[in-house]
UniProtKB/TrEMBL annotation:
Organism whose genome encodes this protein: Herbaspirillum hiltneri N3
Name this polypeptide is given: Cobyrinic acid a,c-diamide synthase
Every CobQ/CobB/MinD/ParA nucleotide binding domain range: 4-182
Pfam hit, one: CbiA
Highest rank taxon of the organism: Bacteria
């Protein structure tokens, strides 16, 4: 049962967007998926509360600092959303659960500065170095026409971690989230561009033989316009 953790100590970088859409993808494939939320704001849980009954089911994983419920029988995939400020023993506890860690990162100097130590910490983890935990980066709300996008690209080039994809800045995520939905819950033709950007992420979380985009190859041009 793979556990995919979405983490970044910086708030407002798109963790819940990634978490809910990952869970939505697994659910759309008929998997028994749990969506956990260790953030005190419980954004993921609030989103589940407005998810339409007709949508592919996503269950809540009861998890907190003091209690982790045993996943119910039939669970095949777990997605865990994490809070801002994740570090120290809380980070250690989360990593003990993780098979993969996805780090959303926005093209802002403040986001980059707030995340660089976290990424170095992940890269130095024994489980990461030994290949027991995979770590991938997703560029969020990237507009290739801006200098900040170039800045993000240069920063990622200096990391020994794969860039899975760059996701454009679009209202699709906001509008779908407002109804408890994901990209995978509506007609693909309505969000075709976004689903295309998700393909490398899907290949990576599914563990398929598709190489994640390396930082030197993942050109945001054409991804974020």
């Amino acid at each position: 049962m793979p556990v995919i953790v979405v983490a970044n100590p910086k708030g407002g970088v798109g963790k819940s967007t990634l978490s809910t859409n990952l869970a939505g993808y697994f659910a759309s494939r008929g998997h028994g998926v749990l969506l956990g939320d260790t953030d005190r704001q419980q954004s993921a849980r609030a989103w589940l509360n407005i998810r339409p009954p007709a949508a592919p089911p996503i269950a809540t994983w009861e998890i907190s600092e003091d209690y982790i419920a045993k996943p119910p029988k039939g669970t095949t995939h777990v997605v865990l959303d994490t809070p801002a400020g994740l570090h120290g023993w809380r980070l250690n506890d989360v990593l003990k659960l993780a098979d993969k860690v996805v780090v959303p990162l926005q093209p802002s100097i403040f986001d980059i500065l707030a995340t660089q130590d976290f990424l170095r910490r992940l890269a130095e983890e024994k489980a990461v170095r030994q290949g027991d935990i995979d770590v991938g980066i997703v560029g969020m709300r990237v507009d290739a026409r801006t200098r900040s996008a170039d800045q993000l690209h240069r920063f990622i080039e200096g990391l020994n971690l794969p860039v899975l994809s760059y996701l454009r800045d679009t209202q699709n995520y906001v509008q779908l989230a407002a109804h408890g939905l994901t990209l995978w819950d509506i007609a693909p033709s309505r969000v075709q561009r976004d689903i295309e950007q998700w393909q490398p992420i899907i290949a990576w979380v599914d563990g398929k033989n598709a190489t994640a985009l390396a930082a030197t190859d993942a050109d945001p041009a054409g991804q974020g316009g």
